[in-house]
Amino acid sequence: MFRKTCALALSTLMLLSVFSTGNLTRAMGKSREEENTIVASEEEEQDVPFYGKKTVDGILVSVKADAGVFPKKSKLKVKKLSQKVDKKKVEEKVEEKLKEEDAELLESFIFDISVLDAEGEELQPDNEKGDVKVSFERLNILAKGKELAVFHLDEPDAEPEKLSDVKVKEKEKKLEVKTDHFSLFVLSVIDRSEDDMETGSLGMEEGEDKNLNEFLSEGNRFVEGIEVSSDHEDIVRVHIDPDTKDVRIKALKEGKATLTIKNKVIVSGSEVEQVKQYTVIVQSPFSGGRLGQNMKYSLSGEGKNMTLTISGYGYGDDRERAPWFAYRDKIKTVIIAEGVEGLGIRRAPFGYMENLEDVTLPSTLKEISDFAFIQSNKLKNLIIPASVVEIGSQAFYKEGTDATHNTIINRSSIYLEDTGKLHYNHSFTTVKQTAKKKEEQKKRGVQINSIRLYQVPS
């Protein structure tokens, strides 16, 4: 009896086991195929984190977001704002914004960033699901000790919004910023100092140690009793040479410092304290870089006998000033190779270069910017090619006791003036050109237009 009961119980248990694994789903009204479909559907609907990256002009742009912020199969799209008109609009808007902070835009990189769904439609993040971070990496501009900021615009004509949650990692040459929507992002290199392009600014390479008198004009040479101080001793340190007793300055690391020189002078019988300040920009040693996607520059040589070579084609990216600014007192030769039409540097790309002598301009060049060679007083003879269609004001202007005489052969159709735009100073520069003043061109036009043809009766 006991054995029969056990056998019956075992049979019932086995039957229940088979029923549970095979027929239970059918008993609940679901087939095995339907069950598998439900599981697969749940997996497809599960939220996943988003990550995408693209490299544009050597800068790695990446976007990462928490799970659920973007649907699965979303993809990143990054492109550079290439339309010159739109780029100019954006930069003007950013410059206006920076003026409110007494800051100046030096350089900008404008990216149109978007995230697309599986059908290619643009998406905006679901901010309730989590955060979105945009990163910019391989930023060689960080090596110049400049301040970085990121602005966001919905379109080129819109008001820029300065993003506040920005993290800069100098060692990794990386900037990371939080955002809540996508469109135009402006990575901006800015400067908060006063105008550095005047002769009161000094460029040094990290590790350099120089006699202060090497920087100063004759009237400002150091004499006993003058006080010299640096507002950032960790960047530029003032010290006295124990042997010569000269005042020296040493560049310790990248960045910017202000030297203040105080001197007491006699004015109308009274002692007056005279104060002058010089901005010192310290830059890491480097051998070159890019002016744009299709243009690069390189520095070669050493000491005050360096050669700057610019090669590529077309136009460089718009920027306020030259990236070789800290080397301006060391460059002796400038070579711009064939193919280059314009540098994109708005102001004084080769200005205030006290040792610059020889310049080669290509037959493809179209633009010479404002103050292009201003106060490069040792500049020798040069030829402006016929291809040039625009020459900025004071492009070749010289003055001062150290200015040497040179001759410019102008083959372009632009008339070089020693008044008005003041392209050059006739005291130091002789210009040979076939182009005529606008007044003369107009006069010729009037003479031609005044000719009338009459038929004389026979």
From TrEMBL:
Signal sequence, renumbered to the chain: 1-22
Could you confirm whether the keyword Calcium appears in this record?
Answer: no
Tell me the keywords, alphabetical order: Signal
Q: Which Pfam families match?
A: LRR_5
The record, for InterPro entries, names: LRR_5, LRR_dom_sf
- Presence of the UniProt keyword Aminoacyl-tRNA synthetase in the record: no
What name goes with this protein? Answer: Leucine-rich repeat protein
